[in-house]
Amino acid sequence: MDSARRVGRWVAAAAVGAALLVSCEAPAEPGSPSPSPTVAAAPGRYTFSLSGLAASLDLQGTSGELEVRNGTDRPLGAPGIVWLGAVDGREREAIVGGAEPIPPGETVTVEVDFPAGFRPQRAGLIILTLDSVRWGALNPP
Hints:
Elements (H helix, E strand, L loop, with lengths): L1 H22 L21 E6 L2 E8 L2 E8 L8 E7 L5 E3 L1 E3 L9 E7 L9 E8 L2 E6 L3
Antiparallel strand pairs: 1-2, 2-3, 3-7, 4-5, 4-8, 6-7, 8-9
């Protein structure tokens, strides 16, 4: 009876191992990495909202307008934008003109310029900052 249990356990382990091997995909060519998934990002309006803070970035090519509404009861720092490249993961800062702290209940609109070579399709993550503190990612529609 002990040998029957051992054989049963061995068969079960072999079946699980085979299932795991079958579910793995091999690269297209030996030694080449698997292709990365394609991420579609539409240029246009990106938004963020959290606890009375609302922001929207209207992007046209490499420039746009960032509107930040302070619906909180305390002042917020000067707005900024940081983005991470989807291809290389590098962090870059956008140039935000005229950014100043935002008093409670106020809304500010500032011009945003991204560096040469910026393409919305390759921006992995666009992040709203206030006085260089990251508040969260702006989401496409």
